[in-house]
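Weekly puzzle thread! Below is a chain. First person to post its structure in token form gets bragging rights.
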Amino acid sequence: MDKKPKLLDRTSNLLQNYCRSSIVEGIIGDLEEAFFENKESKGAFRAKAIHLLQVIGFLRPRFRKRSKQSNFEAMIRNYLVATIRNLSRHKFYATINIFGLAIGMSAGFMILQYVYHELTYDSFIPNKENIYRIQTNRYNQGELSTQWAAGAAGAGNLMNRDFPEVLDYVNLTSSRAQISYDQKYFELTHPYYAGANFFEFFSVPLIRGVDSTALKDPMTVVLSETLATKIFGDEDPMGKIIKMNDANDFKVTGVFLDFPERSHMKFDLLYSFESFVTFTSEESRTAWNWDGFLNYVKLHPDADPASLYEKFDPWLTELRGEEDQANFRMEFIFQPLTKIHLTSNYRMEIKPTGDEKTTYFLLVIGLFVLFIAWINYINLTTARALSRAKEVGIRKVMGGHRSQLIAQFLFESFFLNLLSFVLATLVVFLVFPSFNSFVGKGIAYTWPDSPVFWFGLGGVFILGLILSGFYPAFILSNFKPIAVLKGKFASSSSGNTLRKGLVTFQFLASVVLITGTFVVYKQMNFLQSQDLGVNIAQTMVIKTPQFRSDSVMEIKDAVFQNLLKSDPSVVGFTSSSAVPGRTPDWNAGGIRLLTQDESMSNQYRIIGANANYLHFYDLDMVAGRGFDESYGTEEGNVLFNETAINQIGFQTAEEALNQKINFWGDTFNIVGVVKNYRQESPKQAYDALIFRYFPNTSGFYSVKISTENMHGAIDNMQAHWEASFGNKVFDFFFLDDYYNEQYQAEVKFGSIFGLFAILAILVACLGLFGLSSFITSLRSKEVGVRKVLGASLQQLLRLLTWDFIKLVAVSIVIAAPLSWWLMKNWLAGFENRIQLGIGIFLVPALSIVIIAISTVAFHTYKTAVLNLADTLHDE
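Winning reply:
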């Protein structure tokens, strides 16, 4: 016979501990014999599965060892039997309670998981509590002009030099280069240069290579695992050479694990920072006025960031000079590593960040839904106290103590909550992939593996058990047996008051949620219906390729433009360094009129564009002219928008024409003023923009397409691209989609807000449905008497719904100012926003009144039309 598997030993021990000794040996023998037979005929895996099912079949009461039943076991058995009997007698109320709690729990669980995901970004990095990013603020004449995530080049380096509290630093800067290997080009979304100590600083594991030397030398690169597999497949990438822009050779010296989803960082590859110094200058290590560098510092565990911050202003004054720091103040802010994702949204973030206010807002919504579900349980249980009064009276007469009754009712609460918890867990696991997609998270967005989260979830369950169980238990156990058995029991006024208060809270929460959903919807419609002042329709944008020299680019660019001109579906073309939908990456400070001194300099966003840019995007001129190649000297001319004209000091556009400016030591002439348009979404104020002429600027090609056959247009563009640029990466997007991505966070927030508002209202209505059913049944005799006395159906309907309408009215009165305050704070984040007029609150108020009346009306109508004989036959 084959060697006996460990599985059989384990199941044998289990059966010996559970089954009676008189039969256990026979059972074990039969099961083992069957196992080996099945193994021969069906294979080991199926034999084990069948064996386990057979063992489970013997774990039944009839095979159990006989033992003297303890008092505790008997008590639990009694509680369980009583609970099941009570639920089976009142299936309607039990179903409402279970489903209401399940919906509330599943909504709460998913929101808690989402919030946990947002709050734990970068928590996987060791020593995270001592790592900070240096965020740079720049001021002009005392006014904040620019906020950078990627700021001054030398910030981390010089802090490490001058402050003993700073133990180490690392810096990064982005690259727009394209790479190739063996004549194949690869698309990059997050290429960066990084300091030699990057992997040691963040403790990022390398799959291949040595963390201390991988980025030490110039012209070396470390690839992400995903990119390495895409380029080299199963080949060993170490020592291989990849090309940057067809010109520079980089040696692969390492491969790192992809950064997890829960990180504010994401990289395709990291070039050594020494390479960047080689391409530029040593000044990239220490420059103050060169922005675009991410600086991270590691502080001594005993260092106080606030105290260190106080030293920065005098330190910068000493380094930069008193006049520079006074007129063009720089400010360095320490951003805790784990707070960057939720609290940072500045220029040149590595990837889109979250929003702390929105995250906590959603947490409150999730808790609202959960509390509403618990309130339903309390209301229904206490409302039904009258029907259980005789049960309590008899138990007390038979010797039951109050503590035993409390335990009984708490057990019922535990049992109901447990059933709801199981159902909610099932629902969550079924809808979780859809929820991930709904909130905009990827496949990597999974259930947390942290014990803290699961202990927290267990704590929420226990809290719900306490909140929903203890009050009904104490109310029910407090009945006086003599009064109950004489039929003199009446519900307490305090209990009725509490129940009304809880119902009011339910509707208050519902009104707030409906109002919030309505305001978010109105604000999004308002933003998206604004006149942008720029035509982005039917526009395909293609990222320009990179070449080893500008002359090669000019030749290829001319070929591409000629092919587009011959394409009948193309009605327009332009090239530019930026397109509408984002802040231009090119930020230039120190710009002033020649007649102004340096203290009057300011910062502007710069767009490099060819002569066709304004016409292509239908941008209007306020004064002067646009770029025109027939003048032959456009490289020395610039255009300002209206905001830039005001910022530099002119009252009218006409005043600015033919004025000279100093731009980084060169002189340019203002030849035109462009009407303000929405380079970014209407969420933001108009930015100060300067347009410079470049006949073949690097960045983006914009192509206006007339055909509705977009698939055909894409195929044509790709054919033109390949004919012009060979196998360079063809990376494109449609501008309207790109522009609308700016609203994505708010639209997603509105969708989540609306979803959980619906769930909250659904749970509240479930509770109201059950509560109205019970309360109207208690008043059925009153209804019968009133009908005998001549009351009409309308009067009876008004009588039975009036109490609920009063509660809804109170909730609306309280919810209106609360909703106004909450949504006013949310709208404060928008430069252009709707006004919170009375109509904003009337729609949600009317909606909740209609929902409440509709919910109650069914039971009210049934009670009002009852046959009098059925109602009064006991009287």
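Puzzle host: Confirmed. Bonus trivia for everyone else. The first strand starts at residue 131 and ends at 140.
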